[in-house]
């Protein structure tokens, strides 16, 4: 490049004012391009720089140009102008996040494949890092995005603090048997109020779980449920006797009980799909450990990146970021530990 600039400088100083010599140089340069053995002559970077410089020095350059149109040379110059100024201003814009934050985002995404940018952003907020969710998404390893949607929220939104929901879900075991989980969820803070497992669900067993979930006068005003046959007359009478308004959904319409369906999907995606349940006691132990993590540690998008049981924000001055394995490393709890 330095040699090319020197050549142009020498050409300008020696041939200044010599119209015939400049025309000769321009024509010879085009002949050199045409002699290249290719199906179609192509201009190299050096050729473009030559014509850009010649256009700046010689007013009659348009008369001898045959290979390309004059507008093309002008477009080259404009493109070069943009590249030069892009290079000069390459350090502008938003500053990059600290290398420690970038590494922590990648570590969280690698340790927890099911976590998206909102979940990781919630963990960073609890660790005292004030970064944008878009910054977290920028430094995450790229992977297919999972669609997510929530429906039938308008009615429940007006009664979240007084509403709960219950439902059964199936747990396959190592011996190819089926266990049945029963969950009661409070809508207000997405708090799992009660979780139980049985191999033989009955109406009497369900009534007992309701009594354990709502002792004394702690029951919610509304209880949403599906139309499972197990919720017979005995169960509905128990619900009414506890002062709870029974809210059954329409037949074959699970989307009308969205919060409970969502927490069951979370239990499957974050726990049951990754372990082999041996028996009922094993299922209870695993679910009990996960529920403790779910209530105290797991951040929720619907709770402004907080946990159902409010989790305090740890300031950066509290110490370095450390992690604790949950469920054998299936999930991690991040916290600051003093040196």
Descriptors:
339 residues, 3 domains, single chain, two-stranded antiparallel ribbon, five-stranded mixed β-sheet, Nucleotidyltransferase, domain 5
Write the layout of secondary structure elements.
Layout: H1 2-15, H2 19-34, H3 45-57, H4 61-64, H5 70-88, H6 99-111, H7 117-126, H8 133-139, H9 154-157, E1 163-172, E2 178-186, E3 191-198, H10 203-213, E4 222-225, H11 233-241, E5 245-248, H12 258-270, H13 280-296, E6 320-326, E7 331-337
Parallel strand pairs: 1-4, 4-5
Antiparallel strand pairs: 1-2, 2-3, 6-7
Helix pairs in contact: 3-5, 7-8, 10-11
Give a summary of the structure in a few sentences:
This protein is of the alpha/beta class.
Structure, explained:
- By secondary structure, this protein is α/β, with parallel strands linked by helices.
- It has three domains: 2-88, no CATH class; 99-144 and 309-337, no CATH class; 161-302, Ribonuclease H-like superfamily/Ribonuclease H (Nucleotidyltransferase, domain 5, 2-Layer Sandwich), CATH 3.30.420.10.
- It has helices spanning 2-15, 19-34, 45-57, 61-64, 70-88, 99-111, 117-126, 133-139, 154-157, 203-213, 233-241, 258-270, 280-296; strands spanning 163-172, 178-186, 191-198, 222-225, 245-248, 320-326, 331-337.
- The protein has a five-stranded mixed sheet, sandwiched between helices. The protein has a two-stranded antiparallel sheet with strand order 6-7.
- The mean pLDDT is 83.
